[in-house]
């Protein structure tokens, strides 16, 4: 794996990031979701939340030559999951003394799966959330994401089925207590 660069996403690359998200979902969801569930989630939930891009908390992982390897972020906003097309977003700011930071929209290019891209991105997001005063994080994991997050110290709650345009798609809420490191 070449050296990875992690940096804030730019508004001009949202289209490319949405393409990466779609490719990632279609390939890495196989065996976890049916094709209909994957397409429903792509249409109704998955995608970049441009508010996080504006906040500077949505990150990209790229190689030195600019090849996008993954994306994901953290947020001090109330929305737990969903891109710009998701109707249930909430822009309100969280209180680090009371609330958990949100880990949001992690997707890895299929060719980069299981090569440390997601782990590096998650570590960067957790460090940034910790630096902003948060002591806990929470997220809504896709079914293929559950093993990754569990391996990184996240604890699952009860699975939910989210209605994505008439198609029930499974997700799992997960939480983690951040160390003081």
Would you kindly provide a written description of the structure presented here, covering whatever features stand out?
With 181 residues, the protein is α+β, with helices and mostly antiparallel strands. It has one domain (4-177): Gcn5-related N-acetyltransferase (GNAT) (Aminopeptidase), CATH 3.40.630.30. It contains 5 helices and 8 strands, in the order E-H-H-H-E-E-E-H-E-H-E-E-E. Helix 1 packs antiparallel against helix 2. The two termini are 27 Å apart.
Put the structure in a nutshell.
This protein has about 180 residues and is an alpha+beta fold. The protein is about 30% helix and about 30% strand. Strands 1, 2, 3, 4, 5, 6, 7 and 8 form an eight-stranded mixed β-sheet that branches.
How would you summarize the topology of this molecule?
Blueprint: E1 4-8, H1 14-28, H2 35-44, H3 50-55, E2 58-63, E3 68-75, E4 101-108, H4 117-131, E5 136-142, H5 146-151, E6 155-156, E7 160-164, E8 167-177
Parallel strand pairs: 4-5
Antiparallel strand pairs: 1-2, 2-3, 3-4, 5-8, 6-8, 7-8
- Helical region count? 5
Distance from N terminus to C terminus (CA atoms, Å) equals: 27 Å
For this structure, the CATH topology is Aminopeptidase
Q: How many DSSP-defined strands?
A: 8
CATH superfamily: Gcn5-related N-acetyltransferase (GNAT)
Instruction: Name the helicity range.
Output: 25-40%
Spans of at least 5 consecutive residues with low confidence: none
What's the rounded overall pLDDT mean? 92
Largest sheet: 8 strands, mixed
Can you identify the CATH class? Alpha Beta
**N-to-C SSE series?**
EHHHEEEHEHEEE
In the CATH hierarchy, what is the architecture at level 2? 3-Layer(aba) Sandwich
In the residues, how many domains can be counted?
1
């Amino acid at each position: 794996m070449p050296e990875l660069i992690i940096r804030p996403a730019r508004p001009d690359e949202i289209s490319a990031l949405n393409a990466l998200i779609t490719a990632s979902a279609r390939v890495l969801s196989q065996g976890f979701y049916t094709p209909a569930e994957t397409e429903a989630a792509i249409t109704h939930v998955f995608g970049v939340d441009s508010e996080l891009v504006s906040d500077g908390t949505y990150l990209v992982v790229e190689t030195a030559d600019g090849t996008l390897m993954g994306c994901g972020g953290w947020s001090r906003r109330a929305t737990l999951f969903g891109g710009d097309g998701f109707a249930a977003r909430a822009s309100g700011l969280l209180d680090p003394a009371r609330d958990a930071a949100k880990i949001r929209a992690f997707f890895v290019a299929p060719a980069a799966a299981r090569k440390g891209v997601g782990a590096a991105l998650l570590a960067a997001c957790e460090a940034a959330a910790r630096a902003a005063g948060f002591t806990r994080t929470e997220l809504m994991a896709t079914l293929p994401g559950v093993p990754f997050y569990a391996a990184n110290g996240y604890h699952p709650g009860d699975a939910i089925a989210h209605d994505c345009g008439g198609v029930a798609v499974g997700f799992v809420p997960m939480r983690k207590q951040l160390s003081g490191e």
